[in-house]
């Protein structure tokens, strides 16, 4: 089985994409097989990729800690559990034991708005049944999908999403452009900087993210710099903690430690020791 400590699924980026949110990327690669499938041209504006993960752990189990770096929504189907999983704000740990497979689709930030009429904030920190967005699904549909091979199962999910007739939305494209810009330009570290770069008011941007994503732009900016700091810690043999704190915009080392522990679940030093097994 694979489950979150409190339900849920691994959320893994597509191949070739830097897994910023995975706090132990090497450990994940050793224990879990991941395959990504591109969305069809009509669904590409909404779905970043379809995915299949498998695990076969003959001895023991594997715990995978991660922090979501982008405000994704995933739909997933497995023998243990199926549902819709929203964005989570803090660290969560997933347990893989025995063997299994999960088939899923990852929606682009804000794009689940095109297939679901609910408040996106209702998906934050939780998962809901598939029927909330896809009425009429039952256990028979899930069993049929899981009996298919990977490519056929992905095609079945494509058909399901296509049945909702999602419509192009300029706001979804704008959210994607903002996130890409923030990840590429460290100068876009505040809501004010983003608003200036995109010619929008801060209030308008905050409203956009609230209405389409359910989580604020300020949250995204904080995650961006903390996960960049986590990567720097992983890649640095002997980190200079004060220098890292100042590099990532903190006025004090203590403030950096407090935020890091709140989001990633450990102090920077404890995180460094855990990742490197020391």
Which features does this protein show?
alpha+beta; 39% helix; 7 strands; 2 domains; Arc Repressor Mutant, subunit A; disordered N terminus; 278 residues; 10 helices; seven-stranded antiparallel beta sheet
Quick synopsis:
The protein is an alpha+beta fold. The protein has helices at about 25-30, 140-145, 150-160, 170-185, 190-200, 200-210, 215-235, 240-245, 255-265, 270-275, and strands at about 1-5, 30-35, 45-65, 75-80, 85, 90-105, 125-130.
List the helices and strands and how they pair.
Blueprint: E1 2-4, H1 25-31, E2 32-37, E3 47-66, E4 73-78, E5 83-85, E6 92-107, E7 127-128, H2 139-146, H3 150-162, H4 170-184, H5 191-198, H6 202-212, H7 217-235, H8 241-247, H9 253-264, H10 268-275
Antiparallel strand pairs: 1-6, 2-3, 3-6, 4-5, 4-6, 5-7
Helix pairs in contact: 8-9
Q: Can you offer a commentary on this structure?
A:
The structure is a single chain. The chain has 278 residues and is α+β, with helices and mostly antiparallel strands. It contains ten helices and seven strands. The chain has helices spanning 25-31, 139-146, 150-162, 170-184, 191-198, 202-212, 217-235, 241-247, 253-264, 268-275; strands at 2-4, 32-37, 47-66, 73-78, 83-85, 92-107, 127-128. Strands 1, 2, 3, 4, 5, 6 and 7 form a seven-stranded antiparallel beta sheet that branches. A hairpin with a 4-residue loop joins strand 4 (73-78) and strand 5 (83-85). Helix 8 (241-247) crosses helix 9. Mean pLDDT is 82; it is low at 1-18.
